[in-house]
Design a protein that fits this description.
alpha+beta, Nuclear Transport Factor 2, Chain: A, 4-stranded antiparallel beta sheet, 4 strands, about 55% strand, flat
Length: about 70
Amino acid sequence: MDAIIKSDSIAVERKQFIFDLRENPRGRFLRITEDANGRRDSIVIPAPGLEEFRRLLEEMIAADKAA
């Protein structure tokens, strides 16, 4: 069973994104779930990769603003 450390969500257009920081015996991870019209898809990012994920996300945001 995963323990939820922190959970939050945002709505973007017709999609809901749920962010769950969780922990289990194998370690901490971030699960991002997209809920669009009842269909759910998730990705899991192990905690050691969160800084690199953030860096890449910031680059994508900067590229979007520059376009």
